[in-house]
Amino acid sequence: MLLSFLLVVWSVSATAAAAAPLPVQVRQDTVTIQPEAPRELVVLVHGMGRTSVSMLPLAKVLERQGYEVLNWGYSSFCCSIAELSHRLQHDLQQHQGPTARRIHFVGHSLGNIIIRQMLSLQDTPGTIGHVVMLAPPNQGSHEADRHARSLGWILRPMPELRTDSTSTVRTLPRLEGVPIGVIAGKYDGKVRIEETHLSEERAHVVVPAIHSFLMLRGDVQRLVIGFLRHGKFPQLAGVQPVSH
Length: 244
Fold this sequence. Notes:
By secondary structure, the protein is an alpha/beta fold. Helix content is 31%, strand content 16%.
């Protein structure tokens, strides 16, 4: 009797053990999540007597193209070009932080000269990408020659933009190894086409535009995007390329 009872208990225990789920061993693999690559930065620098608001439409277009934008502003009434370039360098270092990434520049008028001066300094943060210059007085401006004496006391950088061979703009060093594209306005009125050239420019185009609103044109915005991406201007209707 006892033997029969023990056999029944053993049979039930064996059946339960067989039906019980086996313990599952979970393998915990270490997954390394790579940080997202920082976006390329485009620094915008407006022209004399303007504010960063003048570059805001271009900034919005570039942001929609995936760039991070620093729309840098300054006063035309306080400082020399050298002082402004050091301020730009400082603000860019603060904005950039320790992250190394590609930095492009787009300037309008005087803004281009500030960019040129800053890029000639030591300790420029990041890796310099492409530079697009809108209506730059690279060889000085005849309008600066005309108004430097009467307006130079209030617009501090204006005398530095004279066409005289000893002026600041005419004595800046070459930007070696930096791809530069220049966009000039056919009806500029303030900077002549021949005054926009640089000997080290990679590409130069002329658009049917006036000086103050060059950056608002759709064709100019497409030219800027093309050069930032590829280091050359796309072919657009109404845009006159200058051969090198």
